[in-house]
Design a protein that fits this description.
The complex is a heterodimer of chains A (132) and B (108).
Chain A: H1 13-24, E1 34-37, E2 41-44, E3 48-54, E4 64-71, E5 78-84, E6 91-97, E7 103-111, E8 116-127
Parallel strand pairs in A: 2-8
Antiparallel strand pairs in A: 1-3, 3-6, 4-5, 4-7, 7-8
Chain B: E1 6-9, E2 13-14, E3 18-26, E4 48-55, E5 58-65, E6 74-81, E7 85-93, E8 98-107
Parallel strand pairs in B: 2-8
Antiparallel strand pairs in B: 1-3, 3-6, 4-5, 4-7, 7-8
Classes of the chains: A mainly beta (132), B mainly beta (108).
Amino acid sequence: VAGMRTSPALATAEDAMAKVKEFAGGAEPATGTITLNAPEIAENGNTVPVSVSVESPMTEDDYVESVAIFADGNPSPDVITFNFTPMSGEASATTRMRLAKTQNVIAVAKTSTGQVFMDKKEVKVTIGGCGG
Amino acid sequence: MASVKPRVKVPKSASAGEVITIKTLISHPMESGQRKDSDGNPIPRQIINKFTCEFNGQVVFSCDIEPAVSANPYLEFTAKVNEAGTFKFTWVDDDGSVYTEEKEIALN
């Protein structure tokens, strides 16, 4: 592979938790209600499927506004932020992400009523995502 | 970039109030900015940083995308369909390019 990276500084669990805190905006994330799905073992860190779903009525009065995904062993903890509306119908989304090495993937949801939920999965990576 | 091509899968029709699944993929290298070329010079970051799905002019779903999303970014999400109309999908590139795609949906 052309242009392999030369070991950039990787994020730490503290960096990722700082991002979670910032996203949560002061609320203490609760467990449950949100489900993060990612493989236990990813053979190829370049493209790891990841999906989130949050139980919510998704009405004008009570819906999931956003879900952020963080990774605590990549060059930067940020991965993606999904922004939902009541027109989304459900608060669920799937994408594919890069993981530089074995690490935790964290999903945090924020609802329109101010609730914050979090789920976390460790993904073991066999071949790291080049330049994740 | 000439090679950028959006692809979208939306059902042709739905019942009123039905929640449908939409799948999108756009061909794009998602250059992370972390890599170096064979001479050791950093390759500048160039990614799709924003995606939006609108239905009849109203935002249904959007996302803010970071370099940790894989090349050829794939997104799957849902939309509640209350009327017939047009979905509009927009991808924004770091270089300012905007790629769009539209899909019609009818009511059963």
